[in-house]
Amino acid sequence: MLIGAAVAIVVIVPLGALAFIKSGIYDVGAARPHTKLTEWMTHETMIHSVRRHAAEVDAPASFTPAQVAAGFCEYETHCVACHGASAVPRERWVSGEEPDPPYLLDASHRFDRAELFWIVDHGIKMTGMPAWRGTMSDEAMWNTVAFLEAMPKMNSQDYLKWRSAKLCGAIAPPPFPGPSAIPRP
Question: pLDDT under 50 in the chain at which residues?
Answer without folding.
Answer: 171-176, 179
